Amino acid sequence: MPKLFDDHNFIARLRTKTLGRDFRYYRCVTSTQNVVRNCIAQNAREGLLVLGEEQTAGRGQFSRPFFSPPLSGLWFSLLLKPNINTACQVTRLAMQALSRTVLNLCRVNLELKEPNDLLWQGEKVAGVLAEGCTRRDVMKYVVLGIGVNVNTRVEDFPPALMATSLKIITNTELSREDLLADFLVRFEQLYKN
Question: What is the DSSP secondary structure assignment for residue 62, as one 8-state letter?
Answer without folding.
Answer: G
